[in-house]
Write a structure and sequence with these properties.
hydrolase; 7 strands; 4-stranded mixed β-sheet; Nucleoside Triphosphate Pyrophosphohydrolase; NUDIX_hydrolase_dom; NUDIX hydrolase domain-like protein; 5 helices; 200 residues
Length: 200
């Protein structure tokens, strides 16, 4: 067997990305966590991304899973690093398959739901190079914005500043239209009726 036909060489050739766009920073599909963090009013927090793929879009807090880190530990760490908020009642929701064509990146995004540990949470921008600001939204607001063909210039969507949703969040509504994240939550406060009315 010649050197050019060694199994190792053949495997290496087959492992190369077929699409030139995917010879960038990551040569493999990566996985991460996004967190729908709800407050006592049934709202969840999103921020305007900066300095990375999906810049200038509304995304959920979260990030890459570290080696040997669980989804839950990743969620706790990322929320603390990005917003300063402590979270509880962390539950797995669903996963999306997200291909960033222009950036040449491919992720699977694990969506978790959680609740703020304390009432009246205030998200702080602790990583200003990665996030412009945090805002609280209801599920109904974001779903209607997505269905309106975001970004929308309609006056009732001014809260979104005409910015698109981050691809994983967009795919959450696109590929998981029946998902109901609030059903995963345990009532920390007597606001179930309020939360249900805000999310439908």
């Amino acid at each position: 067997m010649s050197e050019n036909t060694l199994p190792e060489k053949a495997l290496a050739e087959n492992a190369k990305p077929k699409d030139e766009k995917f010879k960038g920073r990551f040569g493999v599909v990566r996985t991460g966590v996004n967190v729908l963090l709800f407050d006592e009013k049934g709202r969840f927090v999103m921020g305007i991304r900066k300095g990375s793929h999906g810049a200038n879009t509304w995304g959920l807090p979260g990030g890459h899973i570290d080696l040997r880190e669980s989804f839950e530990d990743c969620a706790i760490r990322e929320l603390d690093e990005e917003t300063g908020l402590a979270i509880v009642n962390i539950k797995f929701l669903t996963v999306t398959n997200d291909v960033f064509e222009e950036a040449g990146k491919h992720y699977t995004t694990n969506f978790l739901v959680a609740q703020a540990k304390y009432k009246y949470p205030s998200a702080v921008v602790l990583e200003p190079k990665k996030c412009e600001r945090w805002e609280w939204f209801t599920w109904k607001e974001v779903k209607k914005y997505y269905e309106a063909g975001q970004p929308s210039n309609n006056d009732k969507y001014t809260k979104f500043d005409g910015k698109k949703l981050f691809l994983p969040t967009e795919n959450l509504f696109k590929t998981r239209p029946d998902v109901r994240p609030w059903e995963k939550l345990q009532p920390l406060w007597p606001t179930e009726k309020k939360m249900e009315s805000e999310t439908k």
